[in-house]
Amino acid sequence: MSDAVRQIKERLNIIDVVSPYVELHKAGRNFKGKSPFTNEKTPSFYVSPERGMYYCFSTSQGGDIFSFIQTMEGVDFREALRQLAEKAGVELVAEAPEKRSERDRLYALIEETTKFFEEWLPLAPIATAYLEKRAVKPATVSKWRIGYAPGPSSGGWRLLKEYLAAKGYSVPEMLKAGVVKPGADGKEPFDVFRDRVMFPLRDPNGKVVGFSGRTLTPDEKTPKYVNSPETELYKKSELLFGYDLAKQSIRTLDFFLIVEGQFDVVMSHQAGYGNTVAVSGTALTLHHVQLLERLSTRVVLALDADRAGIAAMKRAAEVMLRRGLDVKVAKLPPGADPADLVEKDPHALKSAVGGAVPIIDFLLVHLKEQVTDERAFRLRVSEEVIPYVTLIPNRIDQEHFVGIVAAALGVSLDSVRFEVERARSENERTPERVSAHPIPQVAVPATVDTARLRSEQRERFLSWLVAAVSLLDGSLAMRVSKALEEITDAPLAEVQATVTADMLAHATIDIGNRYASRSEKAFLEDIVSNLNLTRSLIIREAIAERKQLLKQLEAGKEGDLTSLLADLTTLESKRKLPAYGIESFTV
What we know:
Layout: H1 3-11, H2 14-18, E1 25-27, E2 30-33, E3 45-48, E4 53-56, E5 61-63, H3 65-73, H4 77-88, H5 97-120, H6 125-133, H7 138-144, E6 147-149, H8 159-166, H9 171-177, E7 180-181, E8 190-191, E9 196-202, E10 208-215, E11 225-227, E12 240-241, H10 243-253, E13 256-259, H11 262-270, E14 276-279, H12 286-293, E15 298-301, H13 307-322, E16 326-329, H14 338-344, H15 346-354, E17 357-358, H16 359-370, H17 374-384, H18 386-390, H19 395-409, H20 413-428, H21 450-471, H22 474-488, H23 492-497, H24 501-514, H25 520-554, H26 561-575
Parallel strand pairs: 13-14, 13-15, 15-16
Antiparallel strand pairs: 1-2, 2-3, 3-4, 4-5, 6-9, 7-8, 9-10, 10-11, 12-14, 16-17
Helix pairs in contact: 1-4, 3-4, 5-9, 11-14, 14-15, 16-17, 19-20, 21-22, 21-24, 21-25, 22-25, 25-26
């Protein structure tokens, strides 16, 4: 534990950190309240001052003051550390004071620029008329701090530059902030944004770091949108427009809505979808997804229905499916975007989002509408849909969509499975497309005895893995054995002793038959998949057992609630560990 983290934990009581977000009531040695992550009626959120930790039973997550702030504010550990250090009065000496002062001036310069644009908006009839035409309400303008950048028609190319200079900012600072650009042939620098409706771009904490401007005088030579250049404050691959205002709604609604542009975000929020975000000046990146998945693993894409929108949807889906997210698509009318729908009828957007379907279903329907020839349709599905099935890390969920594709094509399940394996082999030959998956989540029907099913699955996976280890040689066998010991928290010999002779024989024969004509890599890939599934099952069994103990405690049985909360927090930490990847066993 770093010295700063230790000092913060010593100075801050977890009750003081949680209380602004949750109404807590004493419950023995602990405190209890309604989950801040869901809209629950029965309190299931526990806080242990003694251990300095919390646990939410309705969402199965827990941790300390740092993880709580990360979840509630949607920030990374570094930012949570900064916020809590400020609250605790602990100084973080992570950078030179002069560097901090320089960045603080950039933030102040950007803030002055935002005010400049806001003050100009009511002075520009062309801009206010445009916003009224798009049905943007005054409260929305204020909430998003929408402004106007004056241009040559209003008096010149350097009005912002002159305004900032009068406030004491130098041209080099304006250049670093990305609000002016150098003039050609040694001419004086001029404003980046001119005659545009301005949208401030804010970081996860709500600080303005850049801008996106929409032109009011469109022509073939003028781009519709201009974004700030990348600066020390603004990194387009990291920023999501609207994220700072969407965090709480994403947690409450348990999904996030991704749209294409600033107007789409603004109007979606105005229509009631406060969980809406958009990328700004780039395609969706892994960093964007990691930022969002802290709050929810469910997403609805509501992008334009034109060719560019479909392409953007596919790229975004690929990144998110690799991370194990549940990806759905809202079908929008041809030629319409979310802002258009809200402008005409806010209920139209709600209807589209409410009718969102899984990405695989959407692609099948979209192709069916585009391709009338049956053979061509099947080939296009093989080329354009099957690869997305292979990206789903949960094999049970993947099998579900194998059935969906087979039904759509009118072919056998085995035919689709063959194509899935072929597409997976193609992916393996393209290393840059491979990324780590989170631990697969095992889905089971609600009508079965889930505890018994998980126990049977665990036994089956363990027997298969023990058999696999016996068929491996050298360092690979040692690596897989070590992983199996980590998962079971027991020596390999003890794990082997739990497997009956019948189970071991069945697994050994099954492996021999299944992989006789397949590559060693295919065998190793399934070993890695089964290791991840086994770890998930064991952890889920342990969590279910602790939750049963909690019910007994609430019913009056003697027990240590604090220790139970500690166990659950540890188990949840293990559940969030990165999944095993094939590269861990081949190096």
